[in-house]
Amino acid sequence: MPENSASMTEKIQKIGSEPDVAAAVRKWRKKRGSLIMVLHEIQNSRGYVPREVALYLSRELGTPLASIYEALTFYHYFKLEPPGKAVISVCTGTACYLKGSQAVVDEFSREIGAAVGASTEDKMFHLQCVRCVGCCGLAPVAIVNGKTYGRLTPADVKKIVQEWRDHFKDDPA
Fold this sequence. Notes:
The protein has helices spanning 5-15, 19-28, 35-46, 51-61, 65-74, 94-98, 101-112, 154-169, and strands at 86-91, 125-130, 142-144, 147-149. It is an alpha+beta fold.
């Protein structure tokens, strides 16, 4: 059900008092061409850029909402929906690809039940492909929430997924 405009206005006003958004706007407001930098800061702190934040940024930066969504949808880095708790980033750069990263991607997708670029229904996992992560000597590589796994085979995937399920089983948030 769509939100009424008073409710949305209230949400947008609250956004300005949230520390990550307020700091990003203060830092970049007067710098020309800074939209991408503001969006990066929001993405880094929240894991995605919520609609209310985009609306707030449009108002505060004097940037048309269409321009903000143009950037958000053009660059694969930005997400419009919250990702899963464990973000699985499989490198598909040249070295990883040549060493079999596509089979690793396919196995992660099968094991968690989500396509590349999507999160599982329970929001436990988010699967994404990324370009070179700078670990070519460990190809193929996956990074899950900052932890690097190298020299992967499809057989390694089940153990990695289980490790993260165990990690979050006692963490309901």
